[in-house]
Every structure is written in C-alpha cells, then in structure tokens.
Amino acid sequence: VNPASTEILARVTTPRSRPFIFSVKQTGMPAGAALAGVVLPVLILAFDWRIAISAIGIAAIVVALAIQPLRHKMDAGHDAPVVTGLGSVLEPLKLVWENPSLRCLGCVGFVYGGTQVAIATFYVIHLTSVLSLSLEVAGLIYTALQVSAIVGRLIWGGIAGRLVPGNRVLVGLGLATPVFALVAGSFDASWPLWSVAVFSAFLGLTSHGFNGVLFSELTKHARQDKIGVVAGGLQFAMFAGVATLPLIFGLIVTFAQSYFVAYGTFALAVLLTAAYAAVSLPILVDDRQSVAS
Fold first, then answer.
1. Are 232 and 92 in contact (CB under 8 A)?
2. What is the gyration radius of the CA atoms in the chain, in angstroms?
C-alpha cells in the first residue's frame, strides 16, 4: 500500500503539508488494528470465527470497489506499458542504495521500524511476566501505547515541515525513544500501575510516531517520476527490520534473561541511527522556506 499511496500523495500535497498528510495516512494501520480488536471479538462471540474473517474480506472488497471512481485521476501518467523483470524488481533497492540520503532513510526505517515492532511484539509478555499483571490489565496498557502511537504520528507530522524540518524530527524521535525504552526495561513489580501506563504511552508516542515523517522525507530526495519505486525500496528496508529485529530482541531476552538488556541494546541501536541521520540528512532550501512560512 505505501509505495502507491506515497506516489499519489506526493502529487496532491504541498511540501509544507506533506508530513502531516502522510502521518494521517499512517494512522490508518493502528486505527484499523484497534477497530478490529473491538469488532472482531464481538462478531466471534455473536456468530462464529468464520463470520469474523469473512467480514474482513468483505470490508476489503467494499473499499476496493468504492475507490474505483477515483482511479482515472490516481493513475494519471501510468498509461505506458510496463515491462516487469528482475531489473524492475531490484530497481527500488538500487535507487535507495545509490543515493546517500535515501540510503540513510532506509537505515532509519530498518532500525526504527524493527524496534517499533519488537516493542509491540513483546510488550504484553513483558508486562505479564515481569510485573505479574493480568492479561486484561497488560492489554489495556498496550492499548494505551497504540493509541499514543496514533496521536504521536499526528503530532510529529504536524510539527515536521511547519515548525521543524522533517529530518530533525526523525533525529529527535531517535533521541527520545531510547530514553523511554530504557524506562520500560526498568519496569518491575514495585512500579505503580499509573506510572507504567504513563511511560508506556510516552514510549508509543516516540517509538511508533516516525512512519509518516519518514515517507514524506523520501519525496525530497527521490526523482518525482520514481517516488513510488523509491517508496518500495524504503518499504523493503523497513520490513527487513520488522522481520529480523523482533527475533533478535527475543533472543536477547532469552539468553540474557533480562528485558532491560534487550531494551538497552535496541536503545543504543536507535541512538546510533539517529546520530547517522543527524550528519547524513541535509536540511534543504524547501525545508527552511516551509518552516519560515
């Protein structure tokens, strides 16, 4: 979804509004997951799990049909036939790797995205095993983290390009996330429940808030006719982190017998990536003009 939506949104947004619009788009996933978490159990209890799964398929079909009237405008400029082969499959990775700024954004996506999913994957297990919370209470705290992720994406998207250049927002999130990750790694049974919930919300606000800003940043460094292709390469880098880093997080917890060590290791990785972005991502003239205006 991201490569196609990135190309479409790059055509219909201004540089100043782009980070916020991209961030609004990125709230769809956590908002949809939260909605599914509410609706699907009700359908299962009221009917059957098959009905619940069928509802997902029906919803997808309804959306696909509903957007058909918009296709002519969305597909403008794509009338020429496209030859697909090994070269076209590898082109997104080549474009990202050859451009230093895009390569840096790929590294940011790999580390930030993998850290985001590693935290989300193990958070409830962490709360139930270390703090001895019930599954219901741990689930509510996890929900607070996810809701904060939605809020964070809107906040950082609103700030990026308007008050602060987008690349500096990415660096700032890379500095804040390690702080709250280390706090989360320090949780134990002596912590008041309210403080666990509050710091979990801050962790969601920072570690889960970068996505829209990241994809809006790539539009500054990619050729306009290659934005969708570059978004595919960036998505590949991010999902490579999503596929591998949670496994590494789990291995660290298993062998070190410590969530703090796992959170600390990932905090260091995010911090080093933020430092790399600070020295590698230039502030462009458009960035200064958008912030000034």
1. yes
2. 20
